[in-house]
C-alpha cells in the first residue's frame, strides 16, 4: 500500500496519525497502576494460566498413549 503512495501522501497520513495521538486523553501511571493491580488480582482466580486447566476440561490433553508391541 505504501509503495503506491507518494512521499507527500505518506507524510500526510503520519501527520494525521500524530494529531490523533496528541488528542488521546492520558491518565497518570500513579492513578492507573493501582487500578490495574486490583483488576489483575480480582481476575486471577479464573485465569487458567495461573491456576491451570483441569485435566477433564483440557482440549489439548493426549487422548491415548502410544502402544508398541
From TrEMBL:
Tagged with keyword Ion transport: no
PROSITE patterns per record: G_PROTEIN_GAMMA
An annotated Gene Ontology molecular function: G-protein beta-subunit binding
CDD domains xrefs: GGL
UniProt KW keywords: Cell membrane, Lipoprotein, Membrane, Methylation, Prenylation, Transducer
InterPro entries the UniProt entry points to: G-protein_gamma, G-protein_gamma-like_dom, GGL_sf
Compartment list: Cell membrane
Region (Disordered): 50-69
Chain ranges of the G protein gamma domain: 1-69
Cellular component, GO annotation: heterotrimeric G-protein complex
Principal location listed in the UniProt entry: membrane
Membrane-protein topology: Lipid-anchor
Biased composition (Basic and acidic residues): 53-69
The keyword Ion transport belongs to this UniProt entry's keyword annotation: no
Any Gene Ontology biological process: G protein-coupled receptor signaling pathway
Similarity section: Belongs to the G protein gamma family.
Subunit note: G proteins are composed of 3 units; alpha, beta and gamma.
Record function comment: Guanine nucleotide-binding proteins (G proteins) are involved as a modulator or transducer in various transmembrane signaling systems. The beta and gamma chains are required for the GTPase activity, for replacement of GDP by GTP, and for G protein-effector interaction.
Designated name of the protein: Guanine nucleotide-binding protein subunit gamma
Amino acid at each position: 500500500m505504501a509503495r503506491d503512495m507518494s512521499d507527500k501522501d505518506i507524510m500526510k497520513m503520519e501527520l494525521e496519525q500524530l494529531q490523533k495521538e496528541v488528542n488521546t486523553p492520558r491518565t497518570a501511571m500513579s492513578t492507573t497502576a493501582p487500578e490495574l493491580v486490583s483488576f489483575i488480582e480480582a481476575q486471577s482466580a479464573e485465569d487458567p494460566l495461573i491456576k491451570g486447566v483441569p485435566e477433564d476440561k483440557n482440549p489439548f490433553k493426549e487422548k491415548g498413549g502410544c502402544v508398541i508391541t
